[in-house]
Design brief:
- The chain contains 8 helices and 7 strands, in the order βαβαβααβαβαβααβ.
- It is α/β, with parallel strands linked by helices and 171 residues long.
- It has one domain: 3-Layer(aba) Sandwich (Rossmann fold).
- The chain has a 7-stranded mixed β-sheet, sandwiched between helices.
- The longest helix has 17 residues.
- The relative contact order is 0.12.
């Protein structure tokens, strides 16, 4: 969307540590400045705030939506995807599960891979390792998923160069 000038960010304050949230916000704001995009932060702290948040997106005439990672958003992913679709709002989400439900795009750590890797921690702990002695690991597998059906519904053409780098294209 080369003509997008207003991008909304749906975020859940306090869902992660202060440093993590600060880094996500600062990185997103820096990217928006570099792209001369007007960034609008819309916070949601509970399920009962989704309708208000999406009404704010409409009032601000957002051209697109970026959804930050959050267990609240993940647990309510169908609701979030449906609200974005209802507003015909091109959106990128933090996990493939959103794109599988009709979200336009998703980029983020593979949740399935994180679950598999956490099983190795459980195994080590059950074999006597102290949790405090185990190293903290960062995600190593990320996924980029594009939902072409949603792109067509939004009258968007995804360039072949973008489709070529996707891990999965849902048709």
């Amino acid at each position: 969307m080369p003509n997008a000038s207003r991008v909304a960010v749906l975020w859940h304050p306090g869902v992660f540590g202060e440093r993590t949230m600060s880094d996500m916000l600062q990185g997103t704001e820096a990217a928006a400045r570099n792209l001369t995009i007007d960034l609008r932060l819309v916070e949601v702290k509970g399920v009962d705030e989704f309708d208000r948040a999406f009404a704010a997106l409409a009032a601000n005439r957002a051209d697109a939506l970026l959804v930050f990672p959050s267990t609240l958003f993940f647990n309510e992913r169908k609701h979030v995807v449906d609200l974005a679709s209802k507003q015909r709002l091109p959106s990128i989400f933090p996990a493939r599960e959103f794109a599988e439900l009709g979200g336009l795009m998703a980029y983020g750590a593979s949740i399935g891979d994180l679950f598999r890797r956490s099983a190795t921690y459980v195994d080590k702990i059950l074999k006597g390792a102290k949790p405090a002695d185990l190293p903290v690991e960062q995600p190593t597998k990320f996924e980029f998923v594009i939902n072409l059906k949603t792109a067509k519904a939004l009258d968007l053409t995804i360039p072949p160069s973008v489709l070529a780098i996707a891990d999965e294209v849902i048709e």
